[in-house]
Inverse folding.
């Protein structure tokens, strides 16, 4: 089923960006609500998420509902022309629920329970939680299901942020039900879990527990199935709420995903089809080396979940967060620049957490659109500026990001790769994915993210980073794609096990061995901090392996370390296509070189000019292409361009100079771009281009 266009949420007859925030009116007086609504208008806000944490206010006592405050808030917003992204309110149960039913408090892997006092303190499998939460949803949906202010339903909040895994007895029972459905017989489960090992053979489903802490290492296949079960279990809660909403309302329904570096517990490829539109929450993680690269990655992955259609940024911070060790404030201009980076990568709506900074509670030092210091602030001015800009950019909505290459990403491989007792604990899935992604980003390429098994035919190049676990069928999709003329790059520790975490014999990288034309006999992981050199001058770390050529050609070889003289990077003609293998963790520059080589080989033109810290991304609409030039650096950057700049109104003939920290969006006609490309010789004229299309393709 196709998604609801984000840009039509506010008004189906006139597409526009949604703009707003989470709003927690429970924390404020009715006088403040009025001031808030007036200021929201001033900032160009058109959509606010409310009732996210409303349960305790709506149902202060079991079964007794009081909607007076929510009615009044919705009326104020409606009167001011602001539409509502209405929370079902189920994300944080009120104190009475866990007081009456303490067994629904989540249990940790060590068997201890967590107490009330934070949020999301419930067991995902609790029938009591399910029942009470659906009673609430029923009340909310019945009351507001056809209210004209309601533009979108916001089921719960960041489902599974804190309570994705519960190890209690009730969860164990649910896990057993899930396992029975998956395996039908205990023999099939024993085979899948490899229970011949360490005397773990089960004779009855009843004996199976959640993977609580064990004295030794646990069963990895059990851990993997528990991760799958846990993702499904919370998706079940989403479905249950959706079913109630549907009975009372035609308004689109979604929940806010957490596609981000530090959260991995939901397999969003399985969740995405159930959403009416894809919404994501993203916060810069200042613990990463280059946080903005992860912003680009997360935005591209969110777009992948949306089938490369526009999506909604449901939460981000106007400045600092409160939950990192050092909560770095955004520099002047960063709020607008980062928001427009999400837009460049497909967002058709931007919302912040939150509207007005809290005075109490653990998030009182989290930034908001309206800071403690009030409206005479950088953050407020930039919030207003962004609302204003988005208001002028409506024509961009609905356009699709133009991508050069595909990258296979998988939550289940994330879970399995990072299990313990592997050759190196330093081979971390997301780090290897980021390494490949960042090298493509540094080369000036735009990446579409695809699930394992997804069709690849529209891409000239597919990158498969460290896909440790993969099914036969999903591996065959990559092989068939190459056989039919595609190009693929696979990096080390891929194809090793099947979906049960069972090793593939006959040599690594198992599932991709024939495709890659190599056979690895043994892994030689490197020690912490150790690096090796390759015969092309590259350096590498973390990993090496003894690769035998079985049809492939060595592009480079190890020049030091445990497998000196043996292949490190290989290429293999397979059917009508080519498959590359990278058998080590190349340094970033070397990885970029190899990927650029594969890119060029695949017939993709590399950008002629790439400036570190400058992103160039294109969105293509029916008539025009919009080239975003995002300058994260502190110097002015000239870029070849022609067309009309949408933020300043300038007409650009040949070059645009993008000021430090700024974003420029250049519209070019798709017609002109085609003509321009056909007639223009950019090799001899350097920066003189016609048609903006050429920018993305290549500057
Ligand atoms: C999200 C959450 C919000 C708020 C925000 C702070 O995880 O949905 O309620 O806590 O983070 O960054
Ligand atoms: Zn539980």
């Amino acid at each position: 089923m196709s998604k609801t266009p984000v840009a039509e949420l506010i008004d189906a007859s006139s597409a526009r960006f949604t703009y707003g925030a989470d709003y927690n009116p429970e924390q404020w007086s009715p006088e403040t609500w009025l001031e808030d609504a007036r200021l929201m208008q001033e900032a160009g806000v058109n959509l606010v998420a409310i009732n996210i944490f409303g349960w305790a206010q709506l149902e202060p006592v079991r079964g007794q509902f009081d909607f007076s405050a929510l009615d009044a808030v919705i009326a104020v917003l409606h009167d001011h022309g602001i539409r509502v992204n209405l929370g079902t309110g189920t994300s944080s149960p009120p104190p009475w629920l866990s007081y009456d039913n303490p067994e629904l408090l989540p249990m940790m892997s060590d068997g201890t329970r967590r107490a009330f006092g934070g949020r999301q303190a419930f067991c995902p499998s609790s029938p009591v939680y399910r029942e009470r939460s659906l009673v609430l949803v029923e009340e909310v949906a019945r009351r507001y299901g056809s209210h004209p202010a309601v533009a979108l339903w916001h089921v719960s909040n960041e489902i599974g942020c804190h309570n994705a895994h519960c190890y209690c007895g009730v969860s164990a029972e649910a896990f057993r039900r899930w396992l029975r459905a998956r395996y039908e017989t205990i023999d099939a489960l024993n085979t899948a879990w490899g229970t011949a090992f360490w005397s773990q053979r089960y004779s009855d489903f009843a004996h199976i527990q959640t993977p609580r802490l064990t004295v030794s290492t646990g069963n990895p296949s059990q851990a993997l199935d528990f991760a799958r079960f846990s993702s499904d279990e919370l998706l079940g809660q989403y479905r249950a709420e959706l079913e109630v909403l549907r009975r009372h309302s035609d308004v689109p329904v979604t929940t806010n995903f957490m596609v981000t570096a530090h959260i991995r517990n939901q397999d969003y490829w399985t969740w995405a089809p159930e959403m009416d539109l894809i919404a994501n929450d993203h916060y810069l993680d200042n613990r990463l080396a280059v946080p903005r690269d992860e912003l680009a990655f997360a935005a591209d992955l969110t777009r992948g979940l949306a089938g490369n259609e526009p999506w909604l940024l449901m939460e981000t911070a106007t400045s600092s967060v409160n939950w990192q060790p050092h909560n770095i404030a955004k520099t002047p201009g960063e709020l607008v620049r980062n928001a427009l980076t999400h837009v460049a990568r497909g967002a058709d709506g931007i919302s912040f957490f939150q509207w007005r900074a809290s005075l109490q509670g653990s998030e009182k030092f989290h930034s908001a659109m309206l800071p403690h210091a009030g409206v005479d602030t950088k953050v407020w001015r930039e919030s207003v500026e962004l609302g204003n800009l988005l208001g002028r950019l409506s024509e961009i909505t609905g356009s699709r990001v133009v991508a050069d290459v595909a990258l296979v990403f998988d939550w289940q491989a994330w879970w399995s790769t990072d299990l313990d007792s592997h050759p190196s604990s330093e081979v971390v899935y997301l780090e290897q994915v980021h390494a490949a992604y960042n090298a493509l980003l540094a080369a000036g390429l735009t990446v579409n993210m695809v699930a394992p098994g997804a069709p690849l035919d529209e891409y000239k190049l597919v990158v498969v980073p460290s896909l440790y676990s993969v099914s036969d069928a999903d591996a065959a999709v990559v092989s068939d794609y190459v056989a039919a003329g595609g190009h693929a790059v696979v990096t080390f520790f891929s194809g090793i096990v099947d979906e049960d975490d069972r090793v593939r014999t006959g040599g690594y990288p198992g599932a991709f061995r024939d495709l890659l034309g190599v056979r690895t006999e043994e892994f030689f992981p490197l020690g912490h901090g150790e690096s090796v050199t390759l015969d092309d001058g590259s350096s590498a770390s973390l990993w090496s392996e003894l690769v035998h050529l079985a049809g492939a050609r060595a592009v480079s070889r190890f020049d030091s370390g445990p497998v000196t003289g043996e292949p490190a990077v290989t290429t293999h003609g397979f059917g009508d296509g080519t498959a590359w293998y990278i058998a080590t963790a190349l340094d970033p520059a070397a990885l970029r070189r190899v990927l650029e080589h594969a890119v060029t080989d695949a017939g993709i033109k590399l950008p002629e000019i790439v400036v570190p810290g400058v992103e160039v991304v294109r969105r293509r609409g029916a008539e025009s292409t919009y080239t975003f030039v995002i300058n994260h650096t502190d110097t002015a950057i000239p870029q070849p361009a022609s067309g009309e700049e949408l933020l300043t109104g300038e007409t650009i003939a040949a070059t645009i100079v993008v000021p430090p920290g700024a974003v420029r969006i250049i519209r070019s006609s798709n017609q002109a771009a085609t003509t321009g490309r056909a007639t223009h010789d950019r090799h001899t004229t350097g920066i003189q281009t016609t048609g903006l299309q050429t920018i993305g393709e290549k500057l």
